[in-house]
Amino acid sequence: MNTFLSQKWMRLLVVLPVLSLTFGCTQKFNDVSATVQEAYGNYIDVELTPEEIEAVPYASAYLKIGNQKQVFVVLAFAESNPLTGQTQLKWVSADKAMVVTENGHIVKTIGLQTTNLAGVYGDIPAYSDSPTQYALSYDWSEQHRYGFQAQVERSRQGKETVTTPISSTETDVYTETVTFPSLEESVENTYWVDRNGQVVKTRQHLGPNMVPVELTILKGYSKS
Fold first, then answer.
1. Is the pTM of this model over 0.85?
2. What is the mean pLDDT of each run of 10 residues along the chain (224 residues)?
3. Which residues have a Cβ under 8 Å from the Cβ of 79 and sit 6 or more positions away?
4. What is the CATH number of domain 3-219?
């Protein structure tokens, strides 16, 4: 079977069972959003104290889009991606916007006040000292732009400490150049990765000529 068609069928098969769980997922989504909004009505450009961050019963992060003010988001879902076997983390704001990450990469967005990602597809390798190359496919929901192939080149740049109200983490800094041959455009993304291989901060472009999205993890996700 054609590889492109196989991938399309796989995406459809992934969507179908999810639709049957829509009500339950929507309820959880709304509950989490309501929790954030009730606790932090002024959630835009918020600066939380260590006590406030620890009191939130979810993993949490700060989200910033371009030059806009900082937003507080919490983890609503941690679900396995059937296509890759990796865990996808779904971060939700009080106004029900969502950012989905996998291995630190933003792979989908909903409700952002910018161009939203319908999906990023492909295997995202673990972070290592050696330069890495791999391929991804990008879909953007605006104007129904799908299947844009991207070549990614990743390299380690050095070390840097990421400081939040509740932690100070020594990280390895990686940059990725994402090139879209059909568009003759490229973007550069940055990842701050801790000693366990977890991305604790990232600054990414959702596509060419799009403002960067920055996510800084406050209280990280733990499988336990």
1. no
2. 35 31 47 54 70 91 92 92 93 90 96 91 94 97 92 98 97 98 98 96 96 96 74
3. 87, 88, 90
4. 2.40.360.10
